[in-house]
């Protein structure tokens, strides 16, 4: 039987509400309250800023002020929405109808404001010379007032039955519902949603077309100016056969350097800490930690190679053809070694969970060291065969001096994709799927055992164990797939 309680215990005609878990209720309350407070605070700041500073009294900002007012009321109404989470309305029928009426009116006014804003942007972009004469503060104020008045009148007509007789459709005390006629609801949806959305889409599509045409015109002018003023520079100014690089904004280049450098330094430092910790402390010399050590070494090389990737941001390689091919080879075989180590980690976890009694016998330090060495040597050999043309004739595919490219044949690229991506993903998915199945079966066995020994708490036990099994399965599958994807 469903556990329910009355909204008003002293009244027999009171509505009933189903009990919810305390954690779920608290979480919903906290999330909605935070969203409501944030909405009210931010929109209040917009309202105060535009209202206080006369410099901000422009037609566009007045429209934003009206939109902020509607969103501000939306944030306030969310406090009443929190009350309806448990299915009970405690403020009476009159306040219920007023709440619904305000919600409808504010939604319609907000939609109307967005339509007016789209019209404002359309005139500003498509007819910039006529914007100041067509869009004035007085006209904007009139449009905003008409929008709010029309929203209030239309919603009054739609909810007139509920406004005349509040609570007429409530089946029990503590309920807050309104019923809108089918035809009236269809008309309201047409004028409050379909028509505004259609107008906004048409206007912004027209803006997009005009913006694209303007961008093409600007691009043509910039291209012509670049050819005349030679805004491109050589990677090696003293060589005519040097590659050219296009000038980028200083801020963009600096930001890219900072982000990539920070990621590289962080990757190197964290993986170096893992390598030092596992190598120094003998009690950490376990099979699983040795696999993690191999993965940390490969990720350390990935972090180091990112310093060379920084050099390629502006399209110039300054270290010569030999260093270019060495960089590409190391990047290829480090990535493959990392994938191979990830597969071995999944095998290690598979044996540990599915065959825990045989784990210490089958997974030993000696076998793990051999597997790690084989993995790295196999990666070096395979990638050397794939890039053998580049190793024999470095720079043969460069079209100019300062370029760093390698060419891989179609067959070699297909084989590399199968060996380095498809097979590892398949193996990891199969292994972790098997781990998930075993985890579920173990959880069911534990549930049966606990149910037999302690019948009173059987319901709680079933729910908790089933959730644990599902959570474990999801975690291992997602973590395995994400680890594989990140390494790739």
Question: How would you characterize this protein structure?
Answer:
The protein is 75% helix and 2% strand. The protein contains 15 helices and 4 strands. The radius of gyration is 33 Å and the shape is flat.
Record keyword descriptors for this entry.
15 helices, 2% strand, two-stranded antiparallel ribbon, 3 domains, single chain, Rhopdopsin 7-helix transmembrane proteins, 488 residues, disordered C terminus, 4 strands, mainly alpha, two-stranded antiparallel sheet
The overall pLDDT average reads: 81
Helix content: over 70%
The CATH superfamily name of the largest domain is: Rhodopsin 7-helix transmembrane proteins
In one word, what is the shape?
flat
CATH class identity of the largest domain: Mainly Alpha
Summarize the biggest pleated sheet. Answer: 2 strands, antiparallel
Low-confidence segments, ≥5 residues, pLDDT <50? 456-469, 471-488
Cα-based radius of gyration, to the nearest Å: 33 Å
Computed structural class: mainly alpha
In short:
Helix content is 75%, strand content 2%.
Question: What is the topological layout?
Answer:
Layout: E1 4-6, E2 16-18, H1 22-52, H2 59-83, H3 92-126, H4 131-134, H5 137-158, H6 160-164, H7 182-229, E3 233-234, E4 244-245, H8 250-280, H9 287-311, H10 320-354, H11 359-362, H12 365-386, H13 388-392, H14 410-453, H15 458-487
Antiparallel strand pairs: 1-2, 3-4
Helix pairs in contact: 1-2, 2-3, 2-5, 3-5, 3-7, 8-9, 9-10, 9-12, 10-12, 10-14, 10-15, 14-15
